[in-house]
Amino acid sequence: MKTLVLLAFLVCANCDPFDEDTFKIFITGSKGKITKKKLTTKKNVGYLDISFSTVEAIEPDSFCALPNLKTLYINGNDHFPKITKQLFQCTPKLFYVTIDAYEKANQELDRDAFTGLKDLNFLRLNDINIGRIGKDMFVGVDLEYLNLVSCKISEIDNDAFSTMSRLKELHLGHNLIKTFKPGTFQNLPKLTELMLNKNKIEEIQWDQWNPLPSLKSLDFGDNPLVVCNITKIKEFFPNIHYCNLADSFSAKQQAAFIEESKKLNLTLRFVDYYR
Ligand SMILES: *[C@@H]1O[C@H](CO)[C@@H](O)[C@H](O)[C@H]1NC(C)=O
Ligand SMILES: *[C@@H]1O[C@H](CO)[C@@H](O)[C@H](O)[C@H]1NC(C)=O
Description:
The chain is mostly beta strands. It has helices at residues 36-39, 230-236, 251-263, and strands at 7-10, 23-28, 31-34, 45-51, 54-58, 71-75, 96-100, 122-126, 132-133, 145-147, 155-156, 169-171, 193-195, 217-219, 242-244, 267-269. It is built from 3 helices and 16 strands. The longest helix has 13 residues, at 251-263.
């Protein structure tokens, strides 16, 4: 069996937006088991990238070798082991996490894997079967960026985002969302960008929404959206200047909406990206 290959590089100043003087570890195209011992280095490792590898197992304390880990990528691996909460028991500085599963890999993840990581700022989980977004996933984290694209999400608890008062970008595209529970958007004063493209939303039902004072951009592309009120969009989102309402409205309706939007300093689009 081939063993896991670890490569550590001294980072040039321009390579890493987060750290200028930490080491990086790349595990790419490798096979085998990840252990704490294999990852251990005396260097200050702030960045770990495990991509396009066949990792057969990972010891739960492996990342304890990297107490200064800030940036983690786990992308496109073939049947990566379950990502557990234990994996992050020794990485309190984690700031940026991207886990992009190989589509058919059926990646497993503890719902509470990232709880308590109070420095976590950016979380992207793609092609992982999450199903329901709940507050239980985010206890003790305070994100600015959350991306749960392609996670088979059909349900969002009304308090799922209730602790995320710093959230700026929320990407929920390519899921199975039809409706929102009233209150879902209640505590998001900084939310600037909301991506809901490629879901199942037919109607913007205003009793499901809360005002989003900072929202600038909203995208419903590739939803079967047929009911919308442009004046309400501006009332609920006073700072909005871009909205994509997808391509299910009649030409006549679109023309009426565009006429309305001109008075409101709002750029409307009617674009489906996948049709
Ligand atoms: C759209 O919303 C505005 C503002 O709330 C309201 O006055 C208007 O009647 C609504 N239009 C339709 C067609 O429901
Ligand atoms: C219209 O929106 C733009 C941002 O797209 C903003 O810079 C500008 O001040 C707005 N104009 C008015 C009259 O509100």
